[in-house]
């Protein structure tokens, strides 16, 4: 985890040196997400927003986050976190394409807002 913060404690955990090594410079006035995690195996930055603090990753926020982390020349993964599916349903029309949704009541699954990347059968549906 490289960053964790919320509205009350913006820079609760902030590993500035690690982000700099990844090519990311963050100014003190930056509108930070709630969580930033580096997956070194896949070379991804997973950038998360909790809907209760920052709202969803909509098209505008996706562009802002893409610009904020533009120094990272690998994969950026944008995630909106919800407590329940019901909560997600209230925001469904606002969630940006090419983002992910994680729901606390179903923590082992992620909803992908696109389809091309994950389209295909699962192993238990292949017969023969």
- Please indicate the count of domains: 1
Q: What is the percentage of strand-forming residues?
A: 25-35%
Order of helices and strands: EEHEEHHEHEE
Query: What form results from the Cα inertia axes?
Result: globular
Features:
alpha/beta; 21% helix; seven-stranded mixed beta sheet; 128 residues
Written description of the protein model:
- With 128 residues, this protein is an alpha/beta fold.
- It has one domain (3-114): Trna Endonuclease, Chain: A, domain 1 (3-Layer(aba) Sandwich), CATH 3.40.1350.
- The chain is built from 4 helices and 7 strands, in the order E-E-H-E-E-H-H-E-H-E-E.
- The protein has helices spanning 16-21, 51-54, 59-68, 85-91; strands at residues 3-4, 13-14, 35-39, 44-50, 75-82, 99-103, 110-113.
- A 7-stranded mixed sheet has the order 2-1-3-4-5-6-7.
- Helix 4 links the parallel strand 5 (75-82) and strand 6 (99-103).
- The longest helix has 10 residues, at 59-68.
- It is globular, with a radius of gyration of 16 Å.
- The mean pLDDT is 88.
